[in-house]
Amino acid sequence: MQKQGLELKQTQRLSPLQIQTIKLIELPVQELEQKIRAELEDNPVLDDDPDPDSSKNEDEENPRDVSIDAMKDSDGDIPAYRFKVNNWGKDPRPEYNTFSVKESFTQSLREQLGYRNLSDRQKQIGEFIIGSLDTDGYLRRDIESLVDDMAFRAGMEVTEDEVEDVLAVIQEFEPAGVGARDLRECLLLQLWAEEQTPDVEAAERILEEQFAEFSNRHFQKIMSRLGLDEDGLKAAIARITRLNPAPGGQIDDSYSDQAQQIVPDFMLSEEDGELSFTMPRFRIPEVRVNPQYAEMLTSGKNSSNRAEKEAATFVRQKLDSAKWFVEALRQRQNTLQKTMQAILDFQHDYFLDGDEAHLKPMVLKDIAEKTGFDISTISRVVNSKYIETHFGIFPLKYFFSEGMENKEGDEVSTRELKKALQECVDAEDKKKPLTDEQLVEEMGKRGYKVARRTIAKYRGQLGIPLARWRKQL
Question: Sign of the CA dihedral 334, 336, 341, 343?
Fold first, then answer.
């Protein structure tokens, strides 16, 4: 038997101001300026031209929250007015401090594909192959599967030979090694692109004929079978070890699919052990209502003319939109400042000298508790924001990491552990590299209690190969 009834649920709906603020918080500084310019173009009520009849006064230095009703004069009309966001520079055109983020891996390959003299059909196949590469630049799928996928997903009937031919073209692209189907092919592609010196040719023979022995470090077998002496083998192996096993990692996809200039959102200053930060000065336009719209609202309000009433309604909507936008800018400024200050306080010792050993474990929740903001708000602030310090430019995400305890019971960051692990590997005897179990012991001597599986995890994240791959003659 079905029952019917009423259920009362309490839901929270975001106001237009809250929605606007959330969107602005997510934007890095350059995109924020673009957003402001777009808003000025979209909302005719907003005006960034300085008001020649206004002089700077105390109210401008300390702007207050203003409602539409509060804007009315004693007659109930809204005069021309202006309001602005404080704490921002008014440079007509700032000089940004910028640094480049590399173009995306996929974008680079597509551009190279466009430069080749290929038919439209071959370019379509090339686009599909490029889209099938993994983040390391490898084609991990067999040709037969690609042919089937192109038939089902792209509606193209192609042969395996056609795919092979276009793949061969892509394997000539930069970075060398891209489009390989396994490590051996990746390394060989890079060697084939080099000048064919004796040591390069020896390295090619090792990979082509003795790859299994090379992988297992059976150096005596390699020398015997290929007729190499020890010096020749060392030179060949030196060539191989300088190759990049993950060519896709040379081009960074982490922040954008397009080449771009990054403007630091914060600039750190240190003086006599005191830390402070500023936000780059760029123009936040002084915003005011264009007098003609105020007049339109005043005259249309009491008018019996339908067109004038509709115009007055339009202006009121734009007035509300303008108020929300400027208030959202003010709230964004406040949120970013409080969040950055909390990060600065939490990681004070690190920001003094940039020593990773001083970087404390810190998660979003830590900063949320310090600021009183939601974790989701902190996440939005941290995303795609950068700070310029006296020891480099860093994304805010860099300062967040999980932690674990050392032998003294003090919490240390995973970044500090990785640094210690890298130092252990750098200091090892390359003829007898340390196994993961031995690395656990070495880390223990340094005061870090770490499990073997954790060593394996961090070693992989640092790009450190297994001990047998690190062995040298």
Answer: positive
**DSSP string across 174-239:** SSTTTT-SSHHHHHHHHHHTS---HHHHHHHHHHHH-HHHHHTT-HHHHHHHHT--HHHHHHHHHH
3-state secondary structure of 451: coil
Q: What CA–CA distance (Å, rounded) separates 166 from 119?
A: 11
Helix (H, G, I), strand (E, B) or coil at 276: strand
The tens digit of pLDDT for each residue in 221-233 reads 989 999 999 889 8
The one-character DSSP state at 379 is: H
Residue 79 confidence (pLDDT): 39
Range 403-470 classified under CATH 1.10.10.60: yes
Give me Rg for the CA atoms of the chain: 31
Per-residue pLDDT, 341 = 95
Q: Given CA atoms 105, 111, 115, 120 in this order, what sign does their dihedral have?
A: positive
d(CA 361, CA 344): 13
Instruction: Return the H-helix or E-strand segment holding 101.
Output: strand 99-101
Three-point CA angle 180, 184, 188, nearest 5°: 75
Element (H, E) at 25: helix 16-26
Task: Please determine, for residue 444, whether its predicted confidence score (pLDDT) is greater than 70.
Answer: yes
Residues of the chain with CATH 1.10.10.60: 403-470
Say which amino acid occupies 135: T
